[in-house]
Amino acid sequence: SQTIHQWPATLVQPVGSPLSLECTVEGTSNPNLYWYRQAAGRGLQLLFYSVGIGQISSEVPQNLSASRPQDRQFILSSKKLLLSDSGFYLCAWLSRGHEKLFFGSGTQLSVL
Amino acid sequence: GDSVTQMEGPVTLSEEAFLTINCTYTATGYPSLFWYVQYPGEGLQLLLKATKADDKGSNKGFEATYRKETTSFHLEKGSVQVSDSAVYFCALSPPYNFNKFYFGSGTKLNVKP
Q1: Distance in angstroms (rounded) separating the CA atoms of residues B74 and B72
Q2: How does DSSP classify residue A2?
Q3: Average pLDDT over chain B, rounded to whole?
């Protein structure tokens, strides 16, 4: 069966520090992969999605970047975090043919 | 652009009450529509979906009907349980790019015994 791993579960970082969040998927090949952010009191915002290795689509220009170095690995990064980067970050993969997103358990990022 | 608007929460109901959570969308053409649920401390999981006008999605006693004329996809359940307490998200996938999924702001449901 397919599983999605996302880590860390919580992260506290100072303003100006770098960020690297990792997401890996098991049990499927060539999935679509997604990064969403859920800010306090707000809905899910689509940040990036990827349909294949090295292919990244950015939805919102911002302080973050994404990379897909391997088929089942999706990384969210920042060189210098801002206070506004705080939020709950969710990784997801798409079951093609079923239009069903499977979400990881999320990373709660607090930038102080 | 494509977007989803949900009623603001929280919604507080007693057990066995009738539930409606409103969702309307803005999109060109015929998007696919979804309801996802997020239980405390967990990621989101698909609750139900509908891919064309007049389709009804259903799961675990929840239902939603794709209404093109009112651009709506309201979530309903006839009798809620305490275990239904969660945050519910309406979402759409546009017909021009099924790789994308746009979510509403979420509606928190509290069910009291």
Answers
A1: 6
A2: -
A3: 93
